[in-house]
TrEMBL record:
GO terms for biological process: phosphoenolpyruvate-dependent sugar phosphotransferase system. Its main location: cytoplasm. It comes from the Bacteria. GO terms for cellular component: cytoplasm; membrane. Keywords: Cytoplasm, Kinase, Phosphotransferase system, Sugar transport, Transferase, Transport. Coiled coil: none annotated. Residues 1-124 form the PTS EIIA type-4 domain. This is PTS system fructose subfamily IIA component. GO terms for molecular function: kinase activity. Pfam families: EIIA-man. It is found in: Cytoplasm.
Length: 137
């Protein structure tokens, strides 16, 4: 099973894990790393590596960062390992749900990353574009 580790500003990673488990129930091999004002880069980097090891059972780990270019993503990028650890930035709840439900159905972390990026994009919508009549107020 591919592990999933989220990293983000404030408590977004742990709250997304909480939301995921609210929807899907308890999920194995999923961890969260929050970066708060009190966090040092060194402690966050070490915690992230510890979480990656705890979620890696040999099939790889998908790292989800909240925002490309931000500190959490930059730290995650330092863990990138071709074919084994992939980083996806800008995660949202639909993307996370797709990752959790597909990680046993794909052959690689890269394949999972492709599917979850597509899912994340698919669920970003402007409501007025899909409302009846399609008109904006």
């Amino acid at each position: 099973m591919i592990g999933i580790v989220m990293i983000g500003h404030a408590r977004i990673a742990s709250q997304m894990k909480h939301a995921l488990q609210h929807i899907l129930g308890e999920q194995p091999l999923i961890a969260a790393v929050d970066i708060t004002e009190e966090s040092s880069l060194e402690s966050v980097s070490e915690l992230l590596r510890t979480k990656i090891r705890s979620c890696d059972v040999g099939d790889g780990v998908l790292l989800l960062a909240d925002m490309f270019g931000g500190t959490p993503c930059n730290i995650a990028m330092g863990c990138l390992k071709a074919g084994h650890i992939e980083v996806v930035s800008g995660f949202n709840l639909p993307l996370l749900i797709k990752a959790a439900t597909m990680r046993n159905k794909v052959e690689s972390v890269a394949e999972l990353a492709g599917h979850v990026v597509d899912a994340g994009r698919q669920y970003i919508r402007l409501a007025s574009d899909i409302a009846i009549g399609g008109g904006r107020v």
